[in-house]
Amino acid sequence: MFGVGAGEWVLILLVIVVVFGASKLPQLGDGLGRALKNFKRAVTSANEIEVSAKKGEIPGDQPKPGATQSSDPAPKP
Length: 77
Description:
mainly alpha
C-alpha cells in the first residue's frame, strides 16, 4: 500500500536538502538520532521515569509570605 521505492527516497532526500540546506543536515541527523535514542530508553525503562512534580518543585507553588493556608475551599455566596 505505501511501498516507497528508490526513486521516491531520492526525491524525498532532495527536497530535504533544498528545504534545510546541506550545512544543516548533520545537525538535523544528530538531533533525530538523539531523539530516537531517548525514546528507546524511555520505552525500555518506563518504570523509572517520574512524570509528576513533587510539591515545591514548580515555581510559584510556594505560598506568599503572610498568606494563610486553609484546607477549606472559598466560602460559597
